[in-house]
Design a protein that fits this description.
It is a single chain. The protein has 289 residues and is α/β, with parallel strands linked by helices. The chain has a single domain, classed as TIM Barrel. The protein is built from ten helices and twelve strands. The strands form three sheets. The protein has an eight-stranded parallel barrel with strand order 1-2-5-6-9-10-11-12, surrounded by six helices. Strands 3-4 form a two-stranded antiparallel sheet. Strands 7-8 form a two-stranded antiparallel sheet. The chain is globular and about 50 Å long.
Length: 289
């Protein structure tokens, strides 16, 4: 099997807003997050995507908390660290952890959008807000990522986000090869469908890479589409709690979700990439060469 036939599996361990009331397996503390990272790596993930929490589960941007997560994780396994920068709050509060820890990768939201969850039963929104990511913030994040030598992972919630790379490439603040993440199924963004995934994949420049991030139980059909199209995949308790497509069998760990993703990959003839293979495929360490 050639390197190009390998699939990079990312596991998003905890997210920023999910709680143990929703899923008992959600990790909060640096040690708990590191243990979940180890389970994900053992199961076949090469990358872990990380948000930081206070010990009570509330989200935090404290650089020292990210540092503790990195220290605990690196003591357990060689998995690639991908730190979040997305969410509410000033841009300056969401990048200091990159300067301190210098993770191999960092997520970068590629545009603004309405971000909401709607309840048909209630005929009302569960929550709704404007997710603000202007180009000025994007370019500032890229400058910090260059300083930290953290490979940008471009999180694209819609087609316009994907196509927003053009001015960044022209300015020289973004360089190929690029890693795209197509987030699908968020209200306000692109709908979760195989047709939409195929369209997004066609926007990717030659020699760049992409993965799909499916929200909730839509995840599994999107993973199947990405595996068939030659893309990479992400699973994890941040995105989806369930091992089945019907929301009935809740995962007991991130590792269980990765195990299912590995089985799906092997069912279509693709083998999970090792950490070293993933670094080569994603161009980690070469983004700013």
């Amino acid at each position: 099997m050639s390197l190009q036939d390998k699939v990079v599996i990312t596991c998003a361990l905890t997210g920023a807003v999910t709680t143990r009331a929703q899923c008992p397996a959600i990790p909060y503390t640096p040690v708990e997050i590191a243990e979940e990272a180890h389970r994900a790596w053992q199961a076949g993930a090469a990358v872990v995507h990380i948000h930081a929490r206070e010990d009570d589960g509330t989200p935090t941007w404290k650089p020292e908390t990210f540092e503790a997560i990195a220290r605990e994780t690196r003591a357990r396994c060689p998995v690639i660290l991908n730190f979040s920068t997305g969410g509410a709050g000033p841009m300056t509060d969401r990048c200091e952890h990159l300067r301190l820890v210098k993770p191999e990768m960092a997520a970068l939201n590629m545009g603004s959008m309405n971000y909401a969850k709607y309840s048909p039963k209630r005929k009302d929104f569960v929550f709704e807000f404007v997710f603000q990511n202007p180009f000025s913030d994007i370019t500032a994040f890229l400058a910090v990522m260059k300083e930290a030598n953290s490979k940008p992972e471009l999180e694209c919630f819609d087609v316009g986000h994907t196509q927003s790379i053009a001015p960044l490439l022209d300015m020289g603040v973004l360089k190929q090869p690029i890693q795209f993440s197509f987030i699908m199924g968020v209200l306000g963004g692109i709908a979760a469908s195989a047709e939409n995934l195929a369209y997004q994949a066609r926007q990717v420049p030659k020699d760049s890479t992409w993965e799909v991030i499916g929200i909730s139980t839509e995840q599994w059909k999107l993973l199947a589409g990405a595996l068939a199209l030659g893309g990479n995949i992400r699973v994890g308790l941040e995105d989806n709690f369930y091992l089945d497509a019907y929301g009935k069998q809740m995962a007991k760990s991130n590792g269980e979700l990765v195990e299912k993703a590995v089985r799906m990959a092997r069912d279509v003839g693709r083998e999970p990439a090792s950490v070293d293979e993933a670094k080569q495929l994603l161009g980690i360490g070469k983004a700013w060469a």
